[in-house]
Design goal:
Oligomer: heterotrimer
Strand content of chain C: under 5%
Distance between the termini of chain C: 23 Å
Radius of gyration of chain C: 18 Å
Order of helices and strands of chain A: HHHHHH
Strand content of chain A: under 5%
Shape of chain A: flat
Distance between the termini of chain A: 29 Å
Structural class of chain A: mainly alpha
Chains: A mainly alpha (219), B alpha/beta (243), C mainly alpha (224)
Order of helices and strands of chain C: HHHHHHHHH
Chain lengths: 219, 243, 224
């Protein structure tokens, strides 16, 4: 593990532990009250979901272009984080929405696009798990297609929704709660990096074990 | 009839310290040999020895995990698609469309390989296979031996420099087998390099110019002008593994 | 390149005409699909509003999924896909050839489905034939382009039958949305050309982007 890992992991853990306190001390939002505080986990998760998708996509392109297994390992780790952070986002969002606006789910552009992108991420993992040997390249192509698809999904869902009148109005989020938000964003960013590094490391070690098996037979 | 660039012609195919693994499973390990024009090389070994994997790599469909395969001076990884025009493959599954007639199969592949006159090439191939009268019958209705003959001609229709055969004697009767052996000999004499994977030692006897014995992906012995293949094979396979 | 693609297309059509297996099963499946929807959704002799567009596209996509699976399964059985890859033809040419074959099959299916759906659901699908053809063509091309690549990729994978829809449907969500909404617009009493133009433009862009991507990645994905 590189030198920076342990201090970063410790800091991340500390910040994660401290985050409920930080959130609790933030101002109460006037209309939604306590529930609004889900936002402090929801938004950073959403950002990490997006970043994971981009990392996975870029790593997949590099893997397809060069065939270097390091990129494949990064893509796999990012794909898993995509599904995890996406799940957090898709669960915290409706929980918040229910209290704030009365419904669990609205079919607007952002939420639906996120759902579809998340499903592509799930498909990616299913393919890697059940596709058998040689599915790394296929998965990379899927990730590439998924990434290319994002603008199309967004535009098509957006237009699909605007033709019909919106039943609820998504309020503009006040950014006056500056510090707690950035604290949580930083925490989640560190968490993302730590988890990514750990996961990639597991895959690297797996590859090393495989290489050992092979060289054992070589004698 | 073929239009391959002269630089893609080669005198020998060199397999240099080639290995291939799938995850943890080592299919081929550090195999080296050369297939020259006008020679028949046999890959001999039990099932799972890595013969098919080696043939697939020689056909450029699979890349070695380490080591290089060279066609003349051209390395396989740098090879343009046109190199495949110099290679003919007869796989275990014969690569024939059962819903097409023998003639249609041959014509399709002739055209696919860029032969200018696919029609006459197909006709000539049918003649050589001895199936000129069955040309318009669906391949689905052919016996294994007949399909083999069509498949062999299909593999050779573009006059390849390197011919790869994977277990070609499987399921053949006496007549078809001797016909195949005759065909291979004449191919060799006309200057092709032939690599043949088989576990049928009796048939390989007298046919091979060189024998590569494979066991668990490793090359245990390389024999030139092998005689008494059975005993040589037994020796090679029971030999303790070399370091 | 196109010469090879054309060769492969002709070969596929010849094979298909001989056995007609994929054509019949796909058509029959598509019709069954529509019937199932009819039983499920039609109440008192009237289908749901705008339902016809959705049903049409769902039937096309399900049938397309089946056709893709069967086409490549056939290639896998005689290892003929390998034979195609062994030929000196460029890989993208093989892709285009297979894609054209799938398109012919799907267009044929749609020729049957459109009047059937129009009849069963009393939908005036044929009111604006030019736009209908435009939307159906571009949508089908988008679906088939992605589908052919995935199906070819999956030939050597395990669980390939179930993996194809798992991979294909999320990626083709824009095609579903644009196809259905575009077709539904045609069913309105008054055609709003702005809307239909938008969906058409979206589909065309999708097709261009994804056919290009497929051509780029086909080689990388099919070699080991």
């Amino acid at each position: 593990m590189p030198k920076w890992f342990t201090p970063v992991a410790v800091m991340c853990g500390a910040m994660l532990a401290a985050s409920p306190l930080v959130i609790a001390s933030a101002d109460y939002e006037s209309t939604m009250g306590l529930v609004q505080k889900i936002f402090y986990y929801h938004m950073p998760s959403a950002w990490m979901f997006l970043i994971a998708a981009m990392v996975c996509g870029v790593a997949s392109i590099r893997f397809l272009a060069t065939g270097d297994p390091r990129h494949d390992r990064t893509a796999l780790a990012a794909g898993e984080l995509l599904v995890v952070f996406g799940l957090i986002t898709l669960v915290t969002g409706p929980l918040w929405a229910r209290k704030a606006w009365g419904t669990f789910w609205i079919w607007d552009a952002r939420t639906t696009s996120s759902l579809v992108s998340w499903m592509i991420g799930c498909a990616y993992l299913i393919l890697r798990r059940y596709g058998g040997p040689g599915s790394e390249k296929l998965a990379a192509a899927l990730a590439l297609f998924g990434m290319a698809n994002v603008p199309f999904i967004y535009i098509s869902v957006n237009y699909w929704r605007t033709i019909h009148p919106a039943t609820t109005v998504v309020p503009k989020l006040p950014f006056t709660m500056g510090f707690p938000l950035w604290f949580c964003v930083t925490t989640f960013a560190l968490l993302f990096v730590v988890l990514l590094k750990l996961r990639v490391r597991v895959e690297e070690q797996q590859a090393q074990v495989d290489a050992l098996y092979l060289s054992l037979d070589e004698r | 009839m073929t239009s391959a660039a002269p630089s893609l012609d080669f005198d020998r195919v060199t397999v240099d310290d080639v290995s291939r693994h799938f995850g943890r499973r080592r299919a081929v390990s550090r195999v080296s040999f050369a297939a020259a024009r006008g020679a028949i090389i046999g890959l001999l070994g039990p099932n799972g020895a890595g013969k098919s994997t080696l043939l697939t790599m020689l056909a450029t469909l699979l890349r070695p995990s380490s080591g290089t395969i060279r066609y003349g001076t051209l390395q396989a990884v740098n090879a343009p698609p046109a190199l495949r025009a110099r290679i003919g493959v007869l796989g275990h599954d014969l690569f024939l469309y059962p819903e097409l007639t023998a003639r249609e199969n041959l014509k399709f592949f002739a055209a696919l390989y860029g032969l200018r006159d696919a029609d006459s090439a197909a006709r000539a191939a049918l003649e050589r296979a001895g199936l000129a009268d069955r040309g318009n019958d669906l391949v689905a209705g052919f016996s294994r031996g007949m399909r083999q003959r069509v498949a062999l001609e299909r593999a050779l229709i573009h006059e390849p420099r390197l011919v790869l055969l994977d277990e070609p004697f499987t399921g053949l009767d006496e007549a078809s087998t001797s016909a195949l052996i005759t065909r291979l000999r004449s191919l060799r004499d006309s200057g092709a390099a032939i690599v043949l994977a088989t576990h049928d030692l009796d048939l390989a006897e007298g046919l091979l110019d060189e024998a590569v014995f494979l066991r668990e992906g490793r090359m245990v012995q390389l024999l030139s002008r092998p005689e008494g293949l059975r005993s040589a094979y037994r020796n090679a396979m029971t030999r303790p593994s070399q370091s | 390149m196109m010469r090879v693609a054309w060769l492969i297309l002709r070969k596929d059509l010849t094979v298909e005409v001989r056995s007609r297996e994929i054509a019949y099963t796909t058509l029959f499946f598509a019709v069954s699909c529509v019937l199932v929807f009819a039983f499920a959704l039609v109440r008192e002799g009237r289908g749901p509003e705008d339902g016809a567009a959705g049903i049409l596209w769902i039937a096309v996509m399900f049938a397309g999924n089946l056709a893709l699976g069967r086409t490549f399964e056939r290639e896998r059985q005689s290892e003929t896909l390998r034979a195609l890859l062994l030929a000196p033809a460029s890989r993208p040419a093989v892709y285009v050839g297979k894609l054209l074959g799938i398109l012919v099959l799907l267009f044929g299916t749609e020729l049957l489905l459109v009047p059937l759906v129009a009849l069963l659901f009393q939908a005036r699908l044929l009111a604006h034939p030019f736009w209908l053809i435009a939307i159906m063509t571009t949508g089908t091309v988008g679906f088939a382009a992605v589908g052919t690549l995935f199906a070819a990729m999956l030939v050597r994978a395990r669980s390939r039958d179930v993996l194809l829809p798992v991979l294909l449907y999320p990626i083709t969500v824009p095609v579903i949305i644009a196809g259905v909404r575009g077709t539904a617009t045609l069913l309105q009493p008054e055609l709003e050309t702005g809307i239909i133009r938008f969906w058409f433009a979206l589909l065309v862009t999708f097709d261009v982007v994804f056919v290009t991507l497929a051509l780029w990645t086909f080689e990388a994905v099919m070699t080991d």
